[in-house]
Amino acid sequence: MAAPFLTLSVNGAQRRFDLPGDTPLLYPLRNDCGLNGPKFGCGLGECGACAVLVDGRPVRSCTTPLAAVAGRAVVTLEGLSRDGAPHPVQQAFTEMQAAQCGYCLNGMIIATVGLLSRKPNASEAEIRAALRRHLCRCGTHVEILAAVRRARALMTASTGKEAGAA
Q1: 3-state DSSP call for residue 54?
Q2: Tens digits of per-residue pLDDT, 107-133?
Q3: Element (H, E) at 73
Q4: Which sign does the torsion angle of CA 40, 46, 49, 51 carry?
Q5: Dist CA 96 CA 79 (whole Å)
Q6: Same fold across 6-79 and 88-159
């Protein structure tokens, strides 16, 4: 018996996959959708390079079965920009030069978007907690933290909410 088609929203477009439900989400995103933001790092959900947003929450796509996201909204790094303009988090990472090799950036940016979407005024401890399981082998941690702080300021400025405002 053939596997049923699985449908989900990828960066706002409905996509239908004829794949087994236990296929890791990362593979159809990269292979079928041609999205290169999520990276294959460890394949074990340990490094964070494969992170995507599912219904606004960061998940590790290398260990998330396709069936687990059927009918849900998946956003990759490519889906963050609007009308050709980078997302404020992407802008902040560029401004702060928070990259060396760039392999970890997908996960760092996705984790930051997830955090600041839920907690626009995230504290330093909350920022560090959100990023603690994302590995950067190049050692740009200081720049990454600066970029998250900059993103927080950009997002606060764009919404008109001051720190601490509800």
Answers
A1: strand
A2: 999 999 999 999 999 999 999 999 999
A3: strand 73-75
A4: positive
A5: 21
A6: no
Q: How far apart are CA 19 and CA 68, in angstroms?
A: 13
User: Given this model, what pLDDT does residue 161 score?
Assistant: 54
Ordered by start, the domain boundaries in the chain are: 6-79, 88-159
With both helix axes pointing from N to C terminus, report the angle between 105-118 and 141-159 in degrees, rounded to the nearest 10.
40
The whole-angstrom separation of Cα 142 and Cα 127 is 12
Residue 126 carries which DSSP code? Answer: H
CATH topology assigned to domain 6-79 = Ubiquitin-like (UB roll) (3.10.20)
CB 38 within 8 A of CB 58: no
Could you give the CA distance from residue 89 to residue 95 in angstroms, rounded to a whole number? 10
CATH of domain 88-159: 1.10.150.120
Give the DSSP per-residue string, 148-161: HHHHHHHHHHHHTP
Point out which residues pair with 57 in neighbouring strands. 54
DSSP structure class, residue 164? T
Question: Which positions of the chain have pLDDT values less than 70?
Answer: 1-3, 160-166
